[in-house]
Amino acid sequence: MKVDLSLAIGGFQGGGIESAGQIALRAFVLKGYEVFGSREFHSNIIGAHSYYHIRVGGKALRLPLDALIALDAESIFTHLQSLSKEALLICDQYSLTTKASEIPSMSKALKRRIEQNYGDLSLNKILTDQELKIVALPMRDLLKELSHERSMISVSKALNVMGISAGLYLLGLNKETIKKAIEGQFSNPGINLKAMEIAIEKVKDLERKELPDGKKEDKLILSGNEAVAMAKISSGLDFLSFYPITPATDETLFIEKSGKIITVQAEDEISAIGMALGASLAGLRASTSTSGPGFSLMNEMVSFAVQAEIPIVITLWMRSSPSTGIATRTSQQDLLHAIFSGHGDTPKVVIASGDHSEAIEDTARAFELAEKFQIPVIHLLDKFIASAITTVDKNAFRTLPKRDFSENSDGYLRYKITEDGISPFLPIGRATMIVSSLEHDEYGSATEDPVDREKMILKRIKKLEKASEVLSEESYSVYGDHEPEITIVSFGSTKNAIMEAIEELKIPIKFVQLRILSPFPDLSKELVGKVLVIESNAGQLSFLLKVHCRVDGTAKKLNARPIYVDEVVKAIKAFMNGEKEVIMSEGV
Amino acid sequence: MKERKCANCNNWSPHNLYSFVGYCYEKKKLSFSEYFCELFIELELEEEFYWCGTCRSIIESEEVKEHISKRHRISRRAFMDPDYREEIYEG
Predict the structure, then answer these.
(1) Is residue A542 packed enough to be buried (19+ CB in 10 Å), middle (13-18) or exposed (0-12)?
(2) What is the residue-level pLDDT of chain B in tens, covering all 91 positions?
């Protein structure tokens, strides 16, 4: 029996949603299911609506939801229209008397939409006509029962455990599995286990169907941030500098906490990349991580890295821009920013990963390319991957050998002109050299000589051409039908939703997933039939593809939410019916 | 005079997210808004800032009357879980 479930756990930001979501993920993994959890949180510190969207039995998000565990009234209002007709709704019975107009944290825009749809009614009245399976728990009474055990408890972590325990139990997980998941989540789970007992006792007589065991595998459960951090450590990273920014910080803090890597929190992003470049010049494997606004500040240093030919991996976690935008939400808006970063002719490699496994693979590859071609490599990821949690193969991580340096010799020329443009590299201190941001001759001395200048520009461009040759086989992945009616082109985190949509549609579709965006690969032979570009921005990949090949239509996600399988299915159908531009608007 | 229950007591602060439960600074333990005890002291409006549980925000003393007139739940401050930071995104 294939188990395929979509559920959400919603509540206050800071109110235990993080723990509840992780308990659910752990429990389903313990049961042997494939899981994918996306954490959607508000950019305020505490109090606004946040939720965890979990898919069991797949690696992409689907709507409508089969179940909602609502820790407050706002969660019910927010997700009501995302619920399937007979979805399971677990909530606090006291929240059902609430009207949307009474919720201080709810946005005016959402209140307006709710009022348009339902009027200013309490949840009790709105839910009367619905066919949902509603389990209204007396959370206050359950908490009172728990507080008899101990005079002081974490209220949020008691209520969330009660909600999630009741939910998981009614969805068919047994008590033992839920218990193990809670034990794995908290270092001192005594009171949480008691909360679980109380909640399950309350719902134990309700109708439920026990889920069968899935295929148990010994896998890691990681967020995208953690996956990249572990891949960097495994790749032999020596030095990481950063300035905190959502959604990059969790990666950098993970590396810092490992205690194995020199990690520096700089005073700003300019310093962060400057420090990493200095470390790289000294022979260390170096990286920095940031997101759009931070990368803007790094731009001048990207040019410096190109000019001075310094290897560096810049992990760019895209978020909803421009400017501060919606800092904790996803997008793919920095594609062109990454490719055209830096002033002047700045050849560089831009890699994009589609999921956690690819992010791990690409992290090691980014270091290899940066060091081989002595260039900046920008590794493009996004907030969706950053905070999404899923299972990853334990053997996915690759170990790289230490950085390889040239032999020291008399007359060492740091920028020696060679056939492939790649000069011998020695760390500063091991040979006499000049490194600066100025145009230079082979030794590194500043020059404005037109012949030297021309040679150096051609040398730097030749390296990218060489990289293009090396990468030609690995620049993109092709899935689906090879003689299709349409070809979908995309990059990054849209991958799994597109793959599943194609599988569901059962029509001949080819999917070209770009892994390397700079140097841009030759796709002319791959684009068969009509070409549809799917992306989470206003058309940046479409722009590139129009320049290089052709595009017949685009499906865009602009609302700063993840892409769902179901809206990709609709977008493909609309494109096949002649629509040239489809806006995908699912998500809350 | 207001009803002698925790929600109206000067010693009690509601949880910042779940207003039905809170913390008694006299007994140093959790209690619920409808509980009452011999230590009850009516809320004293002598502070510069207060917590409005209805609006879930801090308000200044000049705003208190207006919130009370709208029947909002006012207390001296809000109580937060000791480990609430674990549930807040670090970025």
Answers:
(1) buried
(2) 678 899 999 999 999 999 999 999 999 999 999 999 999 999 888 889 999 999 999 999 999 999 999 999 999 999 998 887 777 766 6
Taking any CB pair shorter than 8 Å as contact, residues of chain B touching chain A are 15-18, 20-21, 28-30, 32, 54-57, 80-84, 86-91
Domains in chain B: boundaries: 6-87
Average pLDDT over residues A565-571: 98
Exposed, middle or buried: residue A238 (CB in 10 Å: 0-12, 13-18, 19+)? middle
Average pLDDT over residues A389-416: 94
Q: What integer is the mean pLDDT of A237-251?
A: 97
Whether B84 and A156 lie within 8 Å, measured CB to CB: yes
The torsion angles phi and psi of A448, rounded to 5 degrees, stand at: -120, 10
- The confidence score (pLDDT) of residue B60 equals 95
- Cβ contact A42:A48 at 8 Å: yes
pLDDT tens digits, A107-130: 999 999 999 999 999 999 999 989
Chain A contact set for B29 (CB, 8 A): 151-152
pLDDT at res. A153: 85
Cα A287 from Cα A279, distance rounded (Å): 9
List of chain B residues whose C-beta atoms are within 8 Å of the C-beta of residue A328: 89, 91
Hey, are the CB atoms on B56 and A104 less than 8 Å from each other?
yes
Instruction: Please indicate, yes or no, whether residues A385 and A410 belong to a single structural domain of this protein.
Output: no
The residues, any chain, with a CB within 8 Å of residue A487's CB and separated by 6 or more, are: A509, A510, A511, A512, A526, A527, A528, A529, A530, A531, A532
Judgement on whether residues A270 and A161 belong to the same structural domain of the protein: no
Query: Nearest by CB to B84, which of A14, A105, A253?
Result: A14
| Ramachandran region, residue A114 (left: φ > 0; alpha: ψ -120 to 50; beta: rest) | alpha
User: What is the per-residue pLDDT for A410?
Assistant: 86
Please indicate if any CB of chain B lies within 8 Å of the CB of A451.
Answer: no
Separation in Å, CA of B41 to nearest CA in chain A = 21
- Domain total of chain A: 4
User: Are the beta carbons of B87 and A153 separated by less than 8 Å?
Assistant: no
Give contacts of B26 with chain A, Cβ < 8 Å: none
> Does one domain contain both A36 and A145?
yes
A534: containing domain: 477-584
Question: What distance in Å separates residue B66's CA from the closest CA in chain A?
Answer: 16
